[in-house]
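Quick start: read one record
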Amino acid sequence: MNGKIRIGGVPEHFNLPIHLAIENGDFESRNVKVEWTTFSGGTGQMTKALRNDEVDLCVLLTEGIISDIIKGNKSKLISVYVKTPLCWGIHTGAKNELSNYKDIYDKKYGISRFGSGSHLMPIVDAKSQGQNLEEEQFHVIKNLEGALISLDNLETDVFYWEKYTTKPYVDSGRLKRIGEYVTPWPCFVIAATDKILEEQPENVIRVLRTIHDSCDHFMQNDKAIEMVSERYNQKLVDVERWFHSTEWAIHGWVSNKMIDSITYHLKLANIIDADVEIPPLVWIKQ
């Protein structure tokens, strides 16, 4: 075996192609060992793990990792992972009187952590509506389970999270979905630390090729919808809608236009400074 690559990602259905590749021994067949770590705290938790050399490679929200690289994270984008946008559900607790999406901008927001998608997306969304959010409106709740408790106790009012992941809680009545927000760019990318790119570039390429192949097979798998439904406890009809509105990347190309669009929105939302120098964001293998 040529070496080991530590991979991180959220415990959501988007990452099933990678789990299937691990289970099927596809990485070993390319002579590379991988180790998976689940990060329930989302992108903010993973950017910190990349900075701390706890993982080598992560699947994470596009806007979150781009923002963090600009702020000093020594990592690079190495591929798009999911080409389609993410549909964020905008939620409140069942006991909360809040019911109108237009009334959320002066409320308390639960976020997994600062710099996460659940933090960045409300700011970008608010800016698109001509609204501003203040830092004191955000309260760290760590993960989805923390959000459920916080919303139920009325400690926070609003929570942005991927629509289909939270739908079982909406169906059960524990959450109310009062709106949706669709990101105007591909939702997930794969990023790797500069360290692993320097030390094991060929293994990174082997990992990428394996992931792309598994994504290609997954999209053509007649059993994919049933598999997701069973593994992630989701209704078949919901998974069917999600599956047919989601496309995974099968190559490593990263669009300059996508990066320009995201940095524009990050500046507009004051998440990065308007005059900040944008460092190299995409890995170019020498």
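The CA atoms of residues 125 and 191 lie 25 Å apart.
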